[in-house]
Write a structure and sequence with these properties.
GO terms for molecular function: oxidoreductase activity. Residues 100-111 have a biased composition (Basic residues). InterPro entries: NAD(P)-bd_dom_sf, Sc_DH/Rdtase_CS, SDR_fam. The protein is an alpha/beta fold. The protein has helices spanning 2-21, 24-28, 32-35, 54-64, 81-110, 116-126, 143-156, 184-208, 256-277, 303-316, 320-323, 325-332, 374-387; strands at 45-49, 73-78, 132-137, 162-165, 225-229, 282-286, 357-359, 363-364. Strands 3-2-1-4-5-6-7-8 form an 8-stranded mixed sheet, with helices on both faces. Helix 8 (184-208) links the parallel strand 4 and strand 5. The longest helix has 30 residues, at 81-110. It starts with a helix and ends in a 6-residue tail after the last helix.
Length: 393
């Protein structure tokens, strides 16, 4: 009987995930060059975890590629220093090319495109400061590494405006723990990210000083943001959503899909609690879509993982460029008006709601029964606070 139920559950998981893949037209219609509001990024300081591969890397390049609307700094946080240096160069190159396009566009608009010398002085006065990309080593499976990364960032910048918690692990060893004893997926996907956010929160609160979080839908209220990259896998959890007794140790009695699912559910619940407890920072969670990335490069995996990896993702998965769009939207969309109900199914509308979960692009309200369970989110918050007690810079 147990085997039959397991097969049925796995079949349901695959069917639901395949249905979520059928969002390509909605995603492709969202164009970051057109949709990111003017000024939403200008002068901002951004940090992206898992920024050396997949949608994290693409997000860094896309954020840097906004002509006339570039961040001041983009930090790439990852374990791989060699790839980090490569991405830093790629991001700075994309930024330089975008600045050049913006410069040429201004000249065309002024009618002086053939008289560059005449405009040199004006261009020098108006030109944006070059974007600076930086790499910081970060292993989310190690509290010591998270502390070191946070100290490095805090010593180098006066504030932090956008924090994208993107890094994630789905496959990997069947039974493994982090350096600090947490089940590997929960420890890396959730605990490490929340510790990083906790340590960097003072920098984000500095960014919030004098800024309104509730907007008018026209780009105002663009205060500090945390974007937690979750997944529709938040629906594939054990009974009760999160098995708190299994968050430390290898949790070998849980299916790998369930371990991954509860880590992604935890990010959604944490974002909702952050919105209530730290409203100065807008915190949302998102599903990027099922994307053809390194997330599916692990050799190990159960039935659901293998079916997605070898069949559904190659056939129906989003490209990395499309899979980045919901993250870009969440990081830059105007804040919702007070009392606003968010955006329509196109991703265009009344703005970003603090604490909401969004599917691509900018579609709210599609979580599972656990994502709105306030009792569960409160219990998770209290568990997390106890685990991270005394963890300060």
């Amino acid at each position: 009987m147990g085997n039959i139920l397991g097969v049925l559950r796995n079949t349901l998981h695959i069917t639901v995930e395949a249905a979520h893949m059928m969002i390509g037209d909605r995603v492709r219609s969202w164009n970051p060059a057109r949709e990111i509001p003017p000024g939403a990024l200008a002068g901002k300081i951004v940090l992206i975890t898992g920024g050396t591969v997949g949608i994290g890397r693409q997000a860094a390049v896309d954020l840097a590629s906004q002509p006339g609307n570039q961040p001041a700094e983009i930090w790439i946080a990852s374990r791989n220093a060699a790839l980090g240096r490569e991405v830093v160069a790629e991001v700075e190159r994309a930024a330089a090319e975008a600045r050049q396009r913006h410069k040429l566009s201004r000249r065309r608009r002024s009618g002086n495109k053939n008289d560059e010398d005449e405009d040199d002085e004006d261009d020098d006065e108006e030109e944006e400061e070059p974007l600076r990309a930086r790499f910081v080593p970060l292993d989310l499976a190690s509290f010591a590494s998270v502390h070191e990364a946070a100290r490095t960032v805090a010593a180098a910048v006066p504030r932090l405006d956008i924090l994208i918690l993107n890094s994630g692990l789905m496959g990997g060893p069947v039974s493994a723990t982090t350096e600090d004893g947490y089940e590997l997926r929960f420890g890396l996907n959730y605990v490490g990210h929340v510790l990083l956010a906790k340590l960097l929160l003072p920098l984000m609160l500095r960014s919030s000083e004098g800024q309104e979080q509730e907007g008018d839908g026209q780009g105002h209220g663009q205060g500090p943001r945390i974007v937690a990259v979750s997944s529709t896998a938040h629906s594939y959890t054990p009974a009760g959503g999160i098995v708190f007794d299994a968050l430390k140790g290898p949790a070998a009695h849980l299916e790998r899909t369930q371990r991954y699912g509860q880590s992604k559910l935890a990010l959604v619940l944490w974002a909702r609690e952050m919105a209530e407890r730290v409203p100065q920072v807008t915190t949302v969670s998102i599903h990027p879509g099922t994307v053809r990335t390194e997330l599916f490069s692990q050799p190990e995996g159960g039935f659901v993982y293998r079916a997605l990896k070898y069949i559904f993702v190659p056939l129906f998965g989003l490209s990395v460029a499309d899979g980045t769009k919901n993250t870009l939207w969440a990081a830059t969309a105007p804040a919702a008006k007070k009392g606003g109900r968010g955006v329509g199914r196109s991703g265009r509308g009344a703005g970003l709601i603090n604490g909401e979960y969004y599917e691509p692009v900018g579609v709210p309200g599609l979580g599972s029964r656990f994502t709105t369970d306030r009792g569960l989110s409160k219990r998770l918050w209290e568990w997390t606070e106890e685990e991270l007690k005394g963890q300060e810079l």
